[in-house]
Amino acid sequence: MSARILYAEDELSLGKIVKESLQRRGFEVILESDGGKVLSLFRELRPTVCVLDVMLPNRDGFEIAEDIRALDPEVPILFLTAKTQTADLVKGFTLGGNDYIRKPFSLEELIVRIDNVLRRAEKPAAISPADHIRIGKFRFYTNRQLLAHGDTEQKLSYRESELLRLLYEHRDSLIDRKVILELLWGHDGFFNSRNLDVYIARLRVRLREDDQLEILTIKGKGYRFVLG
């Protein structure tokens, strides 16, 4: 069964082009330009993934996402935004967004992002506090801030643990450096930026026993956590 995409876009000319292109790739697409109608469509159609423009008439994408999350905590939500302020990107993640794309975007980028959030949804990151997340050869106990490999255990600091969790939740996707800084440090100042470099280096060392795991630096943008 093809994925059903609920696509909210107020620029109808763009929306129709994107819809037709996605349909040619095998997706089922429901296009809506009025933010006030999106939630009722979600209730009726129960899409596989939601692609929401942030700037919509009547209700914006953030408001819609908050209501969708109240109905369904698992469905992937991807934001499209012309906004470049880090605070807006952080708000999207805080409200439960899984990814975002800055406008203008290429169709290929959109398809890759949709495929990524769908793949991650098949392997949920939500783990009970008593359990662990399997990351390659490692077991990551988030509540204990512990990374285990065989009989070896590594105790993580709070920020190491939160950074690893964030990278894992957005695995195989680019996560903006500024978003990480805002989420983990509260702002993206110079000294916090240097601290982030240190924590990334530490995690790379901690994960080096599994050569299939890579934290890639995307110069000038952020990081991508690749699980092989």
TrEMBL record:
Residues 130-227 form the OmpR/PhoB-type domain. The keyword Transport does not apply. This is Response regulator transcription factor. Pfam families: Response_reg, Trans_reg_C. The modification 4-aspartylphosphate is found at D53. Residues 130-227 bind DNA. InterPro entries: CheY-like_superfamily, OmpR/PhoB-type_DNA-bd, Sig_transdc_resp-reg_receiver, WalR-like, WH-like_DNA-bd_sf. Keywords: DNA-binding, Phosphoprotein, Two-component regulatory system.
